[in-house]
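Can you make up a polypeptide sequence alongside its tokenized fold?
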Amino acid sequence: MSGVEHLQPDGTDFDRFLYATVGEDRNGSAVTVVSALARLGLDPWIEAAKLASLGREAACERLGRSLSGFKDVPTLALEHAAVAATLTALLPDRLSRRATKLAKPAMPKGPSIRGRWILAILIVFLVVARFYFLANGG
């Protein structure tokens, strides 16, 4: 895996969106979506995949909420909804297979259903054995 694939896990599906400008910071420097999302503590590619998997309206609302909390670009305090609408139009209409995997939440780790049944049977067996030994004075 090259360094670019590591930094951009989905290739170019979200480039138009992630490298678009959300506005200028207090120093007059342009701030991109990738930078804004990272500064908000979000993984930009995962967030882009989640947004793209939502409908345009839901994606716009979610991105607008995120941008409203981004204080590095002063104009976003008033313009976050309009900026979100412009930016969500840059999301791809169809997600690649790889992007779809990014958008799906990870399955919680834990025993499988089969493992849970085995554990339940073992617990029942141990409880029955304990009562048997107690009843027989053992």
In short: The beta strands are 21-24, 30-32. The chain has eight helices and two strands.
